[in-house]
Amino acid sequence: MSSLSLPSLPVELLYEIQSFALSSSLPLTSRHLYAVFKSAPLSIHASYLIGRYINSETASFRSGLISVVLRYPLCTQDVLEAIFRSPECPPQRFRTPTELPRRLFRALAPKKSQLRKRKREEGDERWSPDDEPLPFLHYLYDHPRIPHLYANSFDGYALTKAVHAGFLPLVRFLLEHDASPACKDGLAVMVAIRRKDLGLVRMLVERDDRQLQKKARTASVAPEGTQGVAGQTASVPNGNESEAKQEGFKSSKRRRLEDRVRVNQAMLRTAVKCDAREIVEYLVKEKGCVPDMKTVLMINSHE
């Protein structure tokens, strides 16, 4: 009587074995097993990830379910939906923020066409909002059952990789969701400086005040005074509407938003080393960064 080998077992039995073993190595033992588990139903993938979460050494008390399962390349949008549908899905702890896994951003790199350009000023416009991982991030941030995602996970790894790749739509998205360029001593800004990308440096340093200006314009162009309670029109003092509008614009201009990160001498020194003269001028003249003596000597040697 010949003995049965593992690959010869029915796939249903293999699924059952894996549900108890929860082994990350089992699918890698042969091509057949790899194909079996890769093509398994979504419910099997969901059950495996839930089991890995429950049986982890830390029991994932510090990290929530979504933080743990997102670390696995197996976890896609469809698999996440299967997890939420599963009766095995443990309750969520919404007080614990969800980590952004590094695997989503690890492969980001500048486009080949961008690498051929010596002067890179505005990133790579070939990146689009349809490029991964941006659609998946939209799904994660918009899902009602996923706790708030922490954009600065792993010392701002996501933003730094997006800047390195020149992925402007992703950079904007992360900044809109409270990613901080100040993480790891402003590493994202340093990367943008080494790219000689003034527009990207400005995007990282300065907050976008367009929404504030839009509100100010909307309030200032209201005809014949301001709408008061119950839709009544309030009169403008002295009947001078133009002066009131001008004063509104002046007050909006005075409300300058604080920068996301404070520029420093190390950033200026990096810009000088890279011979990024536009960035040097921006840091010194617009941001008031005072160079130290070593940087001054470097500037003089470049002239």
TrEMBL record:
Residues 215-256 are annotated as: Disordered. SUPFAM superfamilies: Ankyrin repeat. InterPro entries: Ankyrin_rpt-contain_sf. Coiled coil: none annotated. Residues 242-256 have a biased composition (Basic and acidic residues). Residues 229-241 have a biased composition (Polar residues). This is Ankyrin. It comes from Rhodonia placenta. The lineage of its organism: Eukaryota, Fungi, Dikarya, Basidiomycota, Agaricomycotina.
